[in-house]
Fold this protein.
Amino acid sequence: MKKYFVYLMAFFLPYLAFAQGVARKFVLSFPHEKDTTFIHVFMPEKSVNTGRAIVDCPGGGYSHLSMENEGTIWADFFCQKGITFAVVQYRMPKGDRDIPVSDAENAVKLLRDSADQWGINPYDIGIMGFSAGGHLASTVATHAEFEARPNFCILFYPVITMGKKGQHEGSCRNFLGKDRDDEQLMKLYSNDLQVRRHLTPPTIILLANDDTGVPPVSNGIAFYSAMRNAGNNCALHVYPQGGHGFGFRDSFPYHEQMLSELEQWLKKLDSPKKEAVRVACVGNSITDGSGIDMAEKNGYPAQLQKKLGNGYHVKNFGVGARTLMNSGDRPYMKELAWKDVLAFNPNVVIIKLGTNDSKTDNWAHKKDFEADYQIMIDKLSSLPAKPRIFLAHPIKAFKTQWTITDSVIVNEVIPAIDRVAERNGLEIIDLHNAIEDGALILSDGIHPNAKGAAKLAEVVARAVLSEPAHKKAKKRTKAKK
């Protein structure tokens, strides 16, 4: 294992000691100054291993852990489906909320770092949590840096809010400790308020309507609403009865239905190939998919994924209203999305910025545009993957809106992009002429609709699938000889 944190492999047990789906179990222990974290790892048979893995956080109000019903008993269910399953016996906060969060984040990192040894796809690692463990899982899904953020999330009757209304008092008191009344911290760890468009992973939420322990509306349903409002992939299953804490108990009236629905959701969840070509779509609201309902499915990066196929792994790193220039009103390179781009270590990057830079107040700093573009290119070029970088011309502004003017784009922004591309030997994608039909643009005259996004995806896909310019030049040189 790499990097950081395996101290002791406590013991191995033969698969015969476990249920049918588990081929191997081992427990890792990580001693700390006053306590120890344990991770119970269950592996499927190699013949059925899908490469998918799940980190599980049992509940218990941040005071204890329901290790069996919400933890180890699930191992057979997942291993039979070829999924590696790891239960985190995380430490209680006892006044320090960073303790359980770091345990859960480190468990995700452990699986990623051990991917080659354990037959895991590092781009297909999920997190699962129950009750307070659901709060912990959703905290990692919404707060963690890229390397520790899961690729999907499973939440059972989760604690979500830390606010005074609709809370689970014990979980909030134990997690926030002496800062229980700090308004900023309550908001920071009310995870429905921390959902981020494109960056918070696909999630399934399962709960009972008659849960009186953790009120569904202010917790699980609030998280679903935040995900749906952001256009993120999310499913919600509310069962008529079952109360709180049903976990894997077969006394839960909808036990078999719940397992079937969870299995179907996992089957339909996209699983990028480990060796897929990683494509990062960098940009503003046009990349983000502003104005397109469910942009995570209908925006241009999502449609680009469909056109490129499963040999590619496309991620949308678009952020609305952002500028390329660091002197602009909302610089892209100061966003979490930019940090994620670099951590993603893409093989291909499409940069589509410049539209918001053309605004009157921003373009007053136009002298910074090419220098800041160079900073972005240098950062990307220094990545281990040495990505193929495309610079895209901004699309046409069909109206002057928010002081975005097409004449500035055509006469100043595009020539500046071309100069940067020429200096760096980079390829251009002409998106300015990709959409000529105003019917493919929303009423604001700036953003493409879903059909316009499909057109952008078509042009970008053609460029990505084309032979790189330097290879073409080599072929021409050989032909002349």
